[in-house]
Specification:
- This protein is of the alpha+beta class.
- The protein is about 30% helix and about 30% strand.
- A four-stranded mixed beta sheet has the order 1-2-4-3, with helices on one face.
- A hairpin with a 5-residue loop joins strand 3 and strand 4.
């Protein structure tokens, strides 16, 4: 579905689902955002032990580092629930 959506046309893109695919989803979602738009990734602070927790934590860390390194984004990490990674696309 993502390839059919218009570039630079959305104010908000929410990424959820498979933690191991967050980086790919977020990369694709950024093209959809207009300047000033916000990327939201939910569940970036895995809580408690469980299957895949280490892999999910590594995926969240990789995504967080990439968002922080991108000068075209203003990032924030909100420790609410299982965590929200927010990034506003600069103009």
């Amino acid at each position: 579905m993502l390839p059919r959506l218009a570039d630079d046309a959305y104010d908000l893109v929410l990424v959820g689902g498979d933690a191991l695919a967050w980086f790919d989803y977020a990369s694709r979602a950024l093209r959809l955002l207009r300047p000033g738009g916000m990327l939201v990734v939910e569940g970036v602070l895995p809580v408690g032990p469980g299957p895949g927790t280490a892999d999910e934590a590594a995926a969240a860390r990789e995504l967080g580092e990439a968002v922080l390194a991108d000068v075209g984004l203003v990032p924030a990490l909100v420790p609410v629930g299982d965590g929200l990674l927010l990034a506003v696309k600069r103009a």
